[in-house]
């Protein structure tokens, strides 16, 4: 998905692109979700927040400073999701990895999802307690060139979606390659602002597993 976020003073305005599932009855109404959330600001710098929900267990926020102005031009934001890992990409650079550790008791998204985009009022948490300046409205977010490769949601045989014949399940997508790993480590070192594992890691088993 290519996205350009509002250009005006948009402090408190959140632009979002995410995958979300229905709340399935057999899971007690719980849902899965994989989020990109752009936090508006007064001219930058701009912060990108990502989150992962599995069986309604969220609170896995990471925040990164973007190394460009996302209001000036479109940039590409992508998600790789297979049974091994979830990878968040910005312009093909991996910025976050969430490994499947379900065999160690960590919840991992596994339900069919649909794509949602939105723009919404994120005060006070997205604005450090400040109010949105509604005189700047309307706030316009632009989305283009959405493309998806995925297993069809109505497929009655869920495990067909794990087939190695689907390109995203190939071994090369089970982990980052060396170049991607270097890029990922550079982003964490330079642009990572907040990681839930450093703040509330005791509440999430995946933060305690290496």
UniProtKB/TrEMBL annotation:
It is an enzyme of class 2 (transferase). Contains at least one intrachain disulfide bond essential for its enzymatic activity. It is found in: Secreted, Cell wall; Secreted, Extracellular space, Apoplast. GO terms for cellular component: apoplast. Keywords: Apoplast, Cell wall, Cell wall biogenesis/degradation, Glycosidase, Glycosyltransferase, Hydrolase, Secreted, Transferase. One of its GO terms (biological process) is cell wall organization. One of its GO terms (molecular function) is hydrolase activity, hydrolyzing O-glycosyl compounds. InterPro entries: Beta-glucanase-like (IPR000757), Beta-glucanase/XTH (IPR044791), ConA-like_dom_sf (IPR013320), XET_C (IPR010713). Its main location: secreted. Residues 1-143 form the GH16 domain. It comes from the Eukaryota. Its EC number is 2.4.1.207. Catalyzes xyloglucan endohydrolysis (XEH) and/or endotransglycosylation (XET). Cleaves and religates xyloglucan polymers, an essential constituent of the primary cell wall, and thereby participates in cell wall construction of growing tissues. Belongs to the glycosyl hydrolase 16 family. This is Xyloglucan endotransglucosylase/hydrolase. It comes from Medicago truncatula. The lineage of its organism: Eukaryota, Viridiplantae, Streptophyta, Embryophyta, Tracheophyta.
């Amino acid at each position: 998905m290519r996205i350009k976020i509002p250009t005006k003073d948009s402090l408190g305005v959140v632009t979002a692109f995410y995958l979300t599932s229905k709340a399935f009855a057999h899971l007690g109404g719980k849902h899965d979700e994989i989020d990109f959330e752009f936090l508006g600001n007064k001219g930058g710098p701009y912060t990108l927040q990502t989150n992962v929900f599995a069986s309604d267990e969220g609170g896995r926020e990471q925040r990164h400073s973007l190394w460009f102005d996302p209001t000036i031009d479109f940039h590409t934001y992508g998600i790789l999701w297979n049974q091994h890992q979830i990878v968040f990409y910005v312009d093909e650079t991996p910025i976050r990895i969430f490994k499947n550790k379900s065999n160690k008791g960590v919840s991992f998204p596994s339900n069919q999802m649909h794509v949602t985009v939105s723009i919404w009022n994120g005060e006070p948490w997205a604005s450090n307690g400040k109010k949105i300046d509604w005189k700047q409205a309307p706030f316009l977010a632009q989305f283009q060139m959405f493309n998806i490769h995925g297993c069809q949601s109505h497929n009655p045989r869920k495990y067909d979606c794990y087939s190695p014949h689907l390109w995203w399940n190939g071994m090369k997508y089970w982990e980052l390659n060396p170049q991607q790993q270097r890029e990922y480590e550079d982003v964490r070192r330079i642009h990572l602002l907040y990681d839930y594992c450093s703040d509330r890691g005791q509440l999430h088993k995946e933060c305690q597993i290496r």
